[in-house]
Design a protein that fits this description.
The protein has about 475 residues and is α/β, with parallel strands linked by helices. It has 22 helices and 15 strands. It folds into two domains: about 250 residues, Rossmann fold (3-Layer(aba) Sandwich); about 210 residues, N-(1-d-carboxylethyl)-l-norvaline Dehydrogenase, domain 2 (Orthogonal Bundle), CATH 1.10.1040.10. The mean pLDDT is about 95.
Length: about 475
């Protein structure tokens, strides 16, 4: 069986630079570009740049950017499945080893858009020296260096549409770029060009993407008649909110292609609804379910303990913190539960666990704080999720967690892993002190969580219960 390859050369120019080669962008942005190309509305390709030194560039290039996307779910009670080969990706560059090629691609005359998904932790400013001719470390530093190259080459500015799930993601990216420009003493003319000739859109993305279907891949390849190491699976539902000038539709005709896209001057209501209900329910529950030996989101929903935990957190705790009409909240809350129950999503709990500390701060903490303000008491499911997070992050020297069902990888930034690794022995012997230290870490939460009335005692009690009686017994205690 031969590997998936192109039968005809690519004859469209690269109009999109994309930082991030993961499952989500390939099932969302690259699919949208492919959809517009099929309709003759965009006529442009995507050049992927992997944001980390270790990534998927070799696999992507081996298939010349091609991969099979499978979108499936239940619509109006009927099973729906769509399969197609996505042809919008030209290839993938590793900037750590191909910096000059990355500069050349970024400075291309046809390039108009920059998309990214480097997780919630990706858009950050960390001081680092300017290294012209070499790859920078953080994503915003890479972009600053590349933008300076583009400015020096006399090319026009770009449209940035970051897809990281942080509030005001476009504004935050621009802020980081300007900080690096100051740190590196780049010319005022460059800073002015960044401000006036580039547009940074705030965005919100929504599609559950399971990624590579490990258990089904061999059978699928037999059906396809070709080998595909990059099969990507997601749900049929998709929603993209772009905050910024509506004129973007002239160059990026997403709505004209029939895609579920909103261009608005205020994305906040959409973001609050989605981040709190869908992402909050994911991040707030998957670590506990994973400790309970479960693998997939739909499996979590079927479980008598963890499924009830999800539904209670959504309906009883998150619901009251979202300032929207009841009819709209009820519809969205019900649709989230239905999407989680999708038996075809195959959404792995461990995939969602990546970078859970920053995700918990963005996705769960705001609901918890608003619930306390509204009800003068802790939301038990949401507070319990922090106890489960702390238990999940206990690890050995290989960044592996251990529970009664075996070991699992703990995936987060090196400084966060190191923090929890150092505290793991204390969590074993003196959990109360260790938990106080974790809750007090303002670099994680941007506040001292010990100041929330009852939080320290509750989290400590539930953490000890998880350790001594097991995750299911502890979860049942808040239901």
């Amino acid at each position: 069986m031969s590997l998936l390859k192109r039968t005809e050369p690519v004859n469209m120019p690269v109009k999109v630079i994309q930082f991030g080669e993961g499952n989500f962008l390939r099932a969302f942005i690259d699919w949208m570009i492919h959809t517009m190309n099929k309709q003759g509305k965009f006529n442009g390709m995507v050049q992927i740049v992997q944001p980390l030194e270790q990534g998927m560039s070799e696999m992507i290039n081996a298939q010349e950017g091609l991969y099979t996307l499978i979108l499936r779910g239940v619509e109006n009670g009927k099973i729906v499945e769509n399969k197609e080969i996505i042809e919008s990706v030209k290839g993938c560059l590793n900037p750590y080893h191909q910096w000059l090629e990355t500069v050349r691609a970024f400075c291309g005359k046809d390039v108009r858009f920059v998309f990214s998904n480097t997780t919630e932790a990706g858009i950050e400013f960390k001081e680092e020296p300017f290294t012209p001719g070499q790859c920078q470390n953080t994503y915003p530093a890479k972009v600053t260096s590349l933008l300076y190259e583009r400015f020096t080459a006399g090319e026009k500015g770009l449209n940035f549409l970051p897809c990281e799930l942080i509030d005001k993601n476009g504004a935050k990216l621009k802020e980081c770029i300007l900080k690096y420009a100051d740190l590196w003493n780049l010319p005022e003319a460059f800073k002015n060009w960044v401000n006036t000739e580039n547009i940074f859109f705030n965005t919100l993305v929504d599609r559950i993407v399971a990624g590579y279907p490990r258990n089904e891949a061999a059978e699928m390849e037999k059906e396809f008649g070709y080998e595909d190491k990059l099969i990507d699976c997601g749900e049929i539902f998709h929603f993209f909110v772009i905050e910024g000038p509506k004129s973007i539709e002239e160059e990026l005709p997403l709505q004209a292609a029939g895609l579920n896209v909103v261009i608005t001057d205020n994305q906040t209501p959409y973001r609050t609804r989605k981040v709190r209900f869908l992402n909050g329910a994911h991040t707030g529950n998957v670590l506990a379910a994973s400790l309970g030996g479960l693998t997939y989101v739909d499996e979590m929903m079927k479980n008598p303990v963890f499924g009830k935990l999800v539904r209670k957190s959504v309906k009883d705790e998150i619901y009251c913190t979202v300032d929207l009409p009841d009819e709209e909240k009820t519809f969205f809350a019900d649709s989230v539960v239905e999407r989680f129950e999708n038996p075809f999503a195959m959404h792995r709990l461990l995939s969602i666990s990546l970078n859970s500390v920053s995700k918990w701060k963005v996705r769960v903490l705001p609901s918890l704080l608003d619930y306390v303000k509204l009800n003068a008491k802790l939301p038990q499911c949401l507070a319990f999720s922090l106890a489960a997070l702390i238990r999940f992050y206990m690890q050995n020297d290989k960044a592996e967690g251990t529970c009664e069902h075996g070991t699992y990888p703990v995936s987060d930034s090196p400084d966060i892993l190191e923090f929890f690794a150092k505290l793991t022995p204390q969590l074993e012997t003196a959990p109360a002190d260790a938990i106080k230290a974790i809750l007090a870490n303002t670099s994680f939460w941007e506040m001292d969580l010990n100041t929330i009335p009852g939080m320290t005692e509750f989290v400590t009690e539930k953490f000890v219960m998880i350790r001594e009686k097991g995750i299911r017994t502890a979860a049942e205690s808040v239901l």
